[in-house]
Design goal:
The protein is built from eight helices and twelve strands. By secondary structure, it is an alpha/beta fold. It has two domains: about 120 residues, NAD(P)-binding Rossmann-like Domain (Rossmann fold), CATH 3.40.50.720; about 110 residues, Rossmann fold. The strands form two sheets. A six-stranded parallel β-sheet has the order 3-2-1-4-5-12, sandwiched between helices. Bound molecules: NADP nicotinamide-adenine-dinucleotide phosphate (NAP).
Length: about 250
């Protein structure tokens, strides 16, 4: 481990990234810099330095790593943020700045779950049966294929409003996780929901909707995770702290 505090770039936008920044900031050996894409207007407070906005692809990120004297990078982005993770792996190879991956475990199918597994957003939108009332909880950036279905009713839940116009057969519900099981059951019952659509994000903050669907006997269209580059991986903040120490020696 070097004598001066090591600058650690955290590619963020998740609860785990924020927790990791807090832990690194309270340790004199490290100086965390968290990078946000800038898609959320009012992000939660993060310890240490914060920078916002894209780097300009893998090359831009590689330049940033060199110019900002980054000792190590942690990809703590959402499991579905595939582009930034691919860029991080390429920039790491180009600069030899190590990149570690903080990946939260996916949700596992349990007794009582009725999951339809699909590979991506397009397939998820396609498999919803005509006449369904779908609670779509995939964020605001990829709601287009659901809004394009004219024979289903869509309740699209998101933190920020969507960029595109909301068609007559859809409605937008703005809310920020976490949600309780009771809140999720009430929402599904009040809106007469017949199917839930979700990414397999993992973690606790948004799991209550999956439990609520199980308890109400509703089917879930579960979108599988995209592939990410093979990197040294930790599945919790504690594990990541040990991995950082081992990697920096
Ligand atoms: P993405 O498709 O993988 O990335 C698209 C572009 O956005 C990247 O090429 C990069 O631009 C920029 N970018 C993404 N994350 C960044 C970061 N942490 N710092 C700086 N630039 C970043 O990403 P996404 O799926 O749009 O996700 C954007 C952010 O929202 C991420 O921080 C992610 O953790 C968070 N998030 C995503 C989801 C989801 O379902 N996808 C859910 C919750 C939170 P340049 O090429 O110009 O560098």
């Amino acid at each position: 481990m070097p004598n001066e505090s090591a600058r650690i770039l955290i590619l963020g936008g998740t609860v785990e990234a924020r927790l990791l920044a807090g832990r690194l900031e309270s340790d004199a050996r490290f100086s965390p810099v968290t990078s946000l894409a800038g898609v959320t207007a009012k992000p939660s407070k993060i310890a240490g330095e914060v920078r916002t906005g894209g780097f300009g692809g893998a090359e831009g990120l590689a330049d940033y790593l060199r110019e900002d004297d980054i000792a190590l990078m942690v990809d703590a982005t959402h499991p579905f943020a595939a582009q930034i993770s691919a860029n991080a792996a390429k920039a790491s190879t180009r600069t030899e700045v190590p990149c570690l991956w903080l990946e939260r475990a996916p949700w596992e199918h349990q007794a009582g779950d009725d999951w339809k597994l699909v590979v991506d957003i397009e397939e998820a939108a396609r498999v919803i049966p005509a006449g369904a009332r779908a609670l779509v909880t995939i964020g605001r950036q990829e709601v287009g294929p659901f809004f394009a279905r004219e024979n289903i009713h869509v309740v699209a839940r998101m933190i920020e409003p969507p960029n595109e116009a909301v068609p007559v057969q859809a409605e937008v519900l703005r809310a920020r996780p976490p949600f309780t099981l009771e809140q999720e059951k009430t929402l599904m019952q009040e809106r007469n929901i017949s199917v839930l659509v979700t990414k397999n994000s993992g973690g606790d903050a948004t799991y209550a909707k999956v439990e609520a669907a199980r308890e109400l006997g509703l089917p879930v269209v579960m979108i599988a995770r995209p592939g990410k580059p093979p990197l040294d991986t930790a599945s919790s903040v504690d594990e990541m702290l040990s991995l950082i120490e081992r990697t920096l020696g």
